């Protein structure tokens, strides 16, 4: 053989041997389809009650969650983020939710963790269950049942569930009809539900305070604005995650960590994250002079804007679109409660300055003007009566629905820009 031919043949053989085997691109992926942002339990020196029992002991807690996108398989994430002791779960089950405390017969599955039916979650940690073959439709509801065999303080929770949870004696995790002797309006230890979905599935996160968490929305009805947004996006195969925490603030901790502190956990670390909507700041402005923050000053517009810029920079560093939402009206907020003093003219001036920057600053990728949608044209600092829940701070169901309808889906996802630039 000609030496040149031999060299060429040898090079070809090495190229074939060294060439990587290109596997077919995966057709499915795991995406979060529901979340509840974890919070640390607070002490009795704060104005609001935790609405939690002292502990669970030889009891089952059954909690319901409505997913956004669906899939044929499911996983559940448990969180002991704020616990100082190991969290012992004696048994955990997932099923399609029935009425009240019931589950759909024949849909129950035991959750396992690395093949084990029980799990101990270390302090500060989370545990993801093994995958379960349980087809869940888009916008369907699942129930997660946890059994606590030993005294367990609910150190990690979510304060405002807008969903009733049921507490009953003994291990009832597999019971179709659960006997309960107590209910909760909080969530405990369950922080996410994931489904196996097409690889093209995207995720949108709504991070905010009680107006995102859905305070004053009808209980057990899924009428928060992120719920209504999930209905609009289900056909686009986009999951919507609610990272609202009632009482949350941009700059300070108390009812949950401040926004920059939890931005990675609740937003940027979510698989498939495409966009985030930020609606937060009214508590930074309004808590001053109320029992919620009697010694705290009013956050300045400059301080809030600086924090928003940090969130924008961090989102852009990860290739995530970030949408700014204007702060909704709050004149008369909580005036008939012990929290009176939440609104005054100085606070309104800060809100107006913040909203002007959100609208006109040009730093968010898009803006949704929730203020313009929900305010009373005859009295702009106040909610439109049809959208007011009655406390003059939170929308009612109609207001939440109007907020979700006001969101431009193409601008949220960047689809309009992509379509206009394509050949």
Compact description:
The protein has 423 residues and is α+β, with helices and mostly antiparallel strands. 24% of the residues lie in helices and 27% in strands.
Rg: 24 Å
Shape, principal axes of CA atoms: globular
CATH class of the largest domain, anyone? Alpha Beta
Major beta-sheet overview: 6 strands, antiparallel
Number of strands: 23
CATH topology of the largest domain: Rossmann fold
Strand content: 25-35%
**Which residues form runs of ≥5 with pLDDT under 50?**
7-19, 417-423
Q: N-to-C terminal Cα separation, in Å?
A: 51 Å
Residues in helices, as a percent range: 10-25%
Mean of all residue-level pLDDT scores:
94
CATH architecture of the largest domain: 3-Layer(aba) Sandwich
Q: Helix/strand/pairing class, anyone?
A: alpha+beta
**Number of helical stretches of at least 4 residues:** 11
Widest sheet, order of strands: 7-6-11-3-13-14
Number of domains: 2
Which superfamily, in CATH terms, is the homologous superfamily of the largest domain?
A: SGNH hydrolase
Keywords: Hydrolase, Signal
Protein name: SGNH/GDSL hydrolase family protein
Pfam families: Lipase_GDSL_2 (PF13472)
GO molecular function, one term: hydrolase activity
Descriptive overview:
This protein has 423 residues and is α+β, with helices and mostly antiparallel strands. It has two domains: 174 residues; 214 residues, SGNH hydrolase (Rossmann fold). The chain contains eleven helices and 23 strands. The strands form six sheets. A six-stranded antiparallel beta sheet has the order 7-6-11-3-13-14, with no helix packed on it. Strands 1, 4, 9, 10 and 16 form a five-stranded antiparallel beta sheet that branches. Helix 7 links the parallel strand 20 and strand 21. Helix 3 packs across helix 9, helix 4 runs parallel beside helix 6 and helix 6 runs parallel beside helix 7. It is globular. The termini are far apart. 46% of the residues are buried. It comes from Lysobacter stagni. InterPro entries: GDSL_Rv0518-like, SGNH_hydro, SGNH_hydro_sf.
């Amino acid at each position: 053989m000609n030496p040149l031919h031999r060299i060429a043949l040898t090079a070809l053989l090495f190229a074939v041997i060294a060439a990587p085997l290109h596997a077919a691109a995966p057709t499915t992926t795991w995406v979060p389809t529901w979340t509840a942002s974890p919070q640390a339990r607070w002490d009795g020196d704060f104005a609001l009650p935790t609405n939690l029992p002292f502990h669970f002991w030889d009891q089952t807690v059954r909690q319901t969650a409505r997913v956004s996108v669906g899939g044929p398989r499911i996983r559940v994430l448990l969180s002991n983020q704020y616990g100082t002791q190991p969290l012992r779960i004696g048994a955990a089950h997932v099923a399609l939710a029935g009425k009240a405390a019931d589950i759909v017969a024949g849909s129950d599955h035991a959750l396992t963790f690395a093949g084990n039916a029980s799990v101990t979650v270390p302090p500060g940690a989370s545990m993801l269950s093994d995958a379960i073959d349980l087809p869940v439709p888009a916008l369907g509801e699942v129930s997660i049942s946890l059994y606590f065999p030993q005294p367990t303080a609910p150190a990690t929770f979510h304060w405002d569930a807008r969903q009733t949870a049921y507490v009953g004696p003994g291990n009832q995790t597999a019971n179709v009809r659960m006997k309960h002797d107590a209910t909760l309006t909080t969530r405990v230890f369950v922080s996410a539900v994931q489904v196996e979905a097409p690889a093209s599935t995207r995720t949108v996160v709504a991070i905010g305070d009680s107006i995102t968490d859905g305070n004053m929305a009808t209980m057990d009805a899924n009428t928060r604005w992120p719920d209504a947004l999930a209905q609009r996006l289900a056909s686009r195969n986009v999951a919507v995650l609610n990272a609202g925490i009632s009482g949350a603030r941009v700059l300070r901790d108390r009812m949950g960590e401040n926004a920059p502190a939890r931005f990675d956990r609740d937003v940027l670390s979510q698989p498939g994250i495409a966009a985030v909507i930020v609606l937060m700041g009214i508590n930074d402005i309004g808590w001053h002079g109320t029992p919620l923050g009697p010694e705290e000053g009013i956050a300045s517009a400059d301080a809030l804007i600086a924090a928003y810029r940090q969130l924008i920079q961090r989102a852009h560093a990860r290739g995530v679109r970030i949408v700014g939402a204007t702060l909704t009206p709050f004149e008369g907020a909580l005036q008939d409660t012990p929290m009176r003093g939440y609104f005054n003219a100085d606070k309104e001036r800060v809100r107006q300055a913040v909203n002007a920057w959100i609208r006109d600053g040009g730093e968010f990728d898009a803006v949704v003007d929730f203020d313009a949608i929900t305010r009373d044209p005859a009295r702009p600092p106040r909610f439109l009566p049809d959208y007011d829940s009655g406390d003059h701070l939170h929308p009612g169901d109609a207001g939440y629905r109007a907020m979700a309808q006001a969101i431009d889906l193409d601008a949220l996802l960047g689809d309009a820009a992509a379509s206009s630039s394509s050949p």
